[in-house]
Predict the 3D structure of the following.
Amino acid sequence: MADLTLKTAAGKDSGTIELSDEVFGVTPNISLMHQVVTAQLAARRSGTQSTKTRSDVRGGGRKPYAQKGTGNARQGSIRAPHFVGGGVALGPKPRKYDQKTPKKMVKAALRSALSDRASEGKIVVVDSWGFESPRTKDAKEALDALGITGTALVVVGRDDAAAALSFRNLPKAQVIAPGELNAYDVLCNEWIIFTKDVLPANTPVSATEPTQKQAAAEKPAVAAESAKATTSPAAAEGSASDEAGDSADQESAAPTSGEAQSKDESAS
């Protein structure tokens, strides 16, 4: 993990903080970022454009003149596309521009964008803003103290309303919540500013912790072992006595060889 100097709102050093390599240390995938950003911009399009075809335009219900004998080209309606006031041929109609993008691709594109800004040294982590009340002047002074000169994407927690209201009036600052962070907004801004409590981090599953598949496979075995363990000796003895009783009943019910012969002689 890379170490980054933790800053205060006044621009002073407040220690160091580690950036996750899974989020800020991956190799940027340019083609992936392009695909995700294109899909995001396409989803913004309303798709409400519409034109009228010859069947939508009012009028033109009858043939303007006879088919033959006038010397003109044959026409069937004055609302054909080549007439003034006629319909539009092959014009745009309402449609959806949405593109299906897997969630894994969206997250990977965000990691690529953050890693690109981290490689350029454009990631700033602030301990806390500490604004008592919303004030744009305090937000501008904080950015100047941090050395932010260009556009900045300020990631603000939902509980820090004073900071969000303070930064939103600055023309070169964009305020965004941690859950709304995306690759497009990261690439549109030169600087990315986090507070310590909203800094994204990945905590991969360690080798000692079982995965979901392993846990699901172990559940039946554990249930069987627990069932065996809960069986009491008294219950085992009862089952053994029941089996012995059943066998005795079967023996008493079965006729002996002598009885079988006597029955056969009497029947004959």
Summary: Strands lie at 2-7, 13-19, 123-126, 152-155, 173-176, 191-195. Residues 233-253 form the longest helix (21 residues). The chain has two domains: 2-46+97-198, 212-267.
